[in-house]
Amino acid sequence: MKLKQLEGLVGGLQQFSNPKIELEQYPTGPHIASRMLYTAENSFGDVSNKIVADFGCGCGTLGAAAALLGAEHVIGIDVDSQALELAYQNAEDLEVDIEYIQCDVKNLRWRGQSVDTVVMNPPFGTRKKGADMDFLSMSLKIASQAVYSLHKTSTREHVRRAALRDFNASSAEVLCELRFDVPQLYKFHKKKEVDVAVDLWRFVPKH
């Protein structure tokens, strides 16, 4: 599947109508979601025929992109039941088969099938300090091959240090810097849209 085609398909998905600020729910736009999964597949072979988990899946954009790129099985995990309903609807609309689990990623006790690749757009940790690191720590425990994640560019050194020193990653690489459009979703947003610089990371867990 071509990148433009993938972006077009995920661009048609429903997004949060009443996002929850405490969960830092910002939709992963089609531009970033498609590039993230396309890179994971075409540069590293981490998607097709793999078990892929989407942590903090929200409306399910990343998981849907993984399914469209031929993942063997996709699991979406989120604490918010309303987000999961939307994700389920989106998967039905795209006619892709995705399993959804309601759970706080921080409390995940994984006993299911082994997961090859974790993809995620975690909370940036601006509302709840360290939320992004909780996601990173858990993803590196669960993925057997790779973790793809978005983190603010301003936290680059902190993320690298935490991954390699504290979370047992064998490598931590910034694949590219992207502009994350944060639309005016919440009352405290003063501007129509804010551009945040984010890094697309690929982490490899130690075995």
Automatic annotation (TrEMBL):
SUPFAM superfamilies: S-adenosyl-L-methionine-dependent methyltransferases (SSF53335). Residues 48-129 form the Methyltransferase small domain. PROSITE patterns: N6_MTASE. It comes from the Eukaryota. Pfam families: MTS. InterPro entries: DNA_methylase_N6_adenine_CS, rRNA_MeTrfase/Polyamine_Synth, SAM-dependent_MTases_sf, Small_mtfrase_dom. One of its GO terms (molecular function) is nucleic acid binding. Belongs to the methyltransferase superfamily. PrmA family. PANTHER family: RRNA N6-ADENOSINE-METHYLTRANSFERASE METTL5. This is Methyltransferase-like protein 5. It comes from Morus notabilis.
